[in-house]
Amino acid sequence: MSNLAALPIILPLLAGILAAFIHKKRTLVRIGSQIFTVAHLLLVIWIFLQVKNQGSLVLETGDWAAPYGIILVGDMLSMTLVLTTNIVAVACVFFAPKSLSEQQESFYFYTFFLMLIAGVSGAFLTGDLFNLFVFFEVLLMASYGLIVLGNGKAQLRESLKYVLINLFSSMLFVTTISFLYSVVGTVNMAQIAERVQEVEQRGVLTTIAIMFFFVFATKAAVFPLYYWLPRPYISPNPVVSALFGALLTKVGIYSILRTFTLIFNQDVELTHTLFIYLAGLTMLFGVIGALSTNNVKLVIAYNIIPAVGFMLMGIGLFSEVSISGTIYYLVHDMIIKGVLFLLIGAIVYVAGTSDLRKMGGLIHHYPVLGWLFFVASLVLAGIPPFSGFIGKLLLLRGSLAQEEIIIVIVALVSSLLILFSMIRIFIRGFWGEKTELSYPERKRKGNRMAWPVAGLLSLSILLGMGAEWFYPSIQSIAEYLMNPEIYIDSVLKE
Amino acid sequence: MELIMAILAGILFTTGIYNLLQKQMLRIIIGTGLISHGAHLFILTMGELETGESGAPPILTEGVESYTDPLPQALILTSIVISFGVTSLLLVLAYRAAQINGTDNMEQLRGTDYE
After folding, report:
1. Cα B40 to chain center, whole Å?
2. Among the four A234, A313, B8, B12, which has the fewest Cβ within 10 Å?
3. Where does the record place a coiled coil (chain B) (predicted)?
């Protein structure tokens, strides 16, 4: 049964390879990918339910017993994130044909897309640190392919910086793994966690912990390592931006969550206090970035950064309530960032410009897009009863319980500023005199773009409205993360 | 032996980072290559080098007392393949970027046309 843990990685990989062979038959690949993604989502839901009912899936590849071979661990946290990834993927695959040009679509978009899904799922499911690095590379390779798709001038220019920064942090990741290997003598996460408790040299381990944090923070765009993020994220096609915004930074946050609850939970005073400070700065600087620009795409891209701050804050507080807040926020943010990037892609497409000063009066022609955007802004800012609110409520409750008042104030102020930056787009872009349509021929296509987004957004609303229904399982994940022994026992089978 | 390896890795890292901070694209790519080789040497060193009379094999069979830790070797192999792939991709990307933007100077590749 535990073989199920490998399916979310292998199936998209195989489908991606298959799509590469028939990439010239556009309709076939498109419909094939759509069918595949939906079927795969159903399969992942089934695996998720299996894990929920019967406990973690542990796959020891090649039948090597746990500390020696490569292992894949499908616990509730991983499977929740894999499920969310696949939900975002379904929305993106239905949005893709409407926004990609023919040339972009036939140049292996679906291959890279499926490989990205495989890489992201792999990073969530893997049980040893070196494979985390390998799956990081798999998803980064796919993202390098996606980011240059279309061969634009700005795209090539920005992708170069993106590739370089990721290459550098990957090499640092390998170096850090080798440091840890020399101290504890293993790369299996469960065994590292077990040995870290025994090792006497706490100073060395804290240094290694900070180095790991540096690597993951670069991928997750934490202050001050976020400067590379906004521009490469807005230069490719909206679908690609949505995938990046929804998935890539979240893999970084997941890695921080996993390593700092499971392995480096020794020197909480130092590392986790550092996280709280950085979380506050991340929120503030991200939101300042969002307010500083008139480019609507850039506003959305900058809004990724404060969300990362919120999640890091939960990890820094390190209590059961705050960790469950982080998990809730993580799931919410994956969905809502997908929604926003797709929406803004549609808006820029129908308006013909991404400059806020040149827009106006769009709501007369595109009421559906307008109201979707309005609701999405409320969800992002965390207005009750939407899903952003529940995550923030849990985080704030966690910080009030530990009397961290400053971070509460920073979080509330930055939420307000996020709302302001989003409503600014709504007011300037959608309100105003009814004007002639600048591109009337785009109207039908623009309205059709709204449907996949509406589906994803309704899910996000459901996540907020049905919080009572989701909260128990999220709380149980947090409980599970706070007790790393369960993970260690399930992997090493003692 | 470990000391020599550590110094060598250090030199590779230093020269790599020096090259990474240059303006010319090709130099930056050479820099990333040097850094990744530094990292690989580093893994090898961290796995504790066995310096017998003629070195020791990374195999564990019955009767062999002195052997090198095989895990770092497996890790390096994977890591080399990955860095090889990324470097070749980066070269192609740099070539296209230089061709389309008309320059290979990173200073001139700053993004300003979004505001």
Report:
1. 6
2. B8
3. none
| Confidence at B115, pLDDT banded by 50, 70, 90 | very low
On whether the pTM is more than 0.90, the answer is: yes
Q: Is residue B59 part of a domain?
A: no
Closest chain B residue to the Cα of A145, Cα to Cα: B89
Give the total number of structural domains in chain B. 1
Q: What is the pLDDT of residues B58-95, one digit of tens each?
A: 666 677 777 777 888 888 999 999 999 999 999 999 99
Pairwise CB contact (< 8 Å): A295 & B114? yes
CATH code for position B40: 1.10.287
The parts of chain A modelled with pLDDT lower than 70 are 1, 494
Model pLDDT, residue B105? 84
Task: Flag whether B72 is in a domain.
Answer: yes
The full set of domain ranges for chain A reads: 2-492
Query: What is the structure's pLDDT at A444?
Result: 79
Q: Is A134 on the interface with B (CB under 8 A)?
A: yes
Q: Residue B16: which domain range? A: 1-48+68-102
Select the residue of A160, A171, A181 nearest B36 (Cβ to Cβ): A171
| Residue in B50, B87, B73 with CA at minimum distance from that of residue A178 | B73
CA distance B90 to chain A (A): 7
